[in-house]
Amino acid sequence: MLGVNLRPVVARFWAPVVRGLVRRGVTADAVTLTGTLGAVASAAFLIGTGHLFWGAFAVTLFVLLDMLDGALARARGGGSLFGAVLDSTGDRAADAAIFAALAWWYSGDGDNRMLVLLALICLVLGILTSYVKARAEGVGLTCDVGIVERTERLILVLVGTGFTGLGIPYAVHVALWVLLIGSAVTVGQRFVAVHQQAGGRPLPPRATDAPSAPPAP
Fold it and tell me: Structure pTM?
């Protein structure tokens, strides 16, 4: 829910940058790819090697591009279907890279199997949170509920990771436990919302399931 409230603030922050990019012909898809590749690389080569503060800082900068690409698409006359799919896929890739990098570090030199487990569970729950919403919208339902959506998920994991990099003990432990519990609740909230809307309605028939027309005489 924080994402919806933060978007107007971020949009005002990015407005001068958007105007400059439009004048230079930069596309929203190019910004999406830059943000995704930057976040994945920062997670892999900084967080994954134990540079937790600078890794969290770099990932945060690239994640902010996630709001820039939408504003840029609107400024250029609206986004495309391909751009929407690319943006959503990039979000999932960046999220997965953060938790995979934490699991990699703490399974090696970080040497903390509990944090490996927490990171992997949070990764799975994050995927489920996004999937339930996407699947619900795919059958014509709405699923905009949950106490921990992507914005909250990123704030928790990046703040916890960054504070741990600054030497604050147990910061990432607390962040991952809070995230695990909040994500589990969110998945439950989304299933409840879908159940309330869908009830016992059957799936609509697919085009391929429709009876074929009788042959012409």
Answer: 0.86
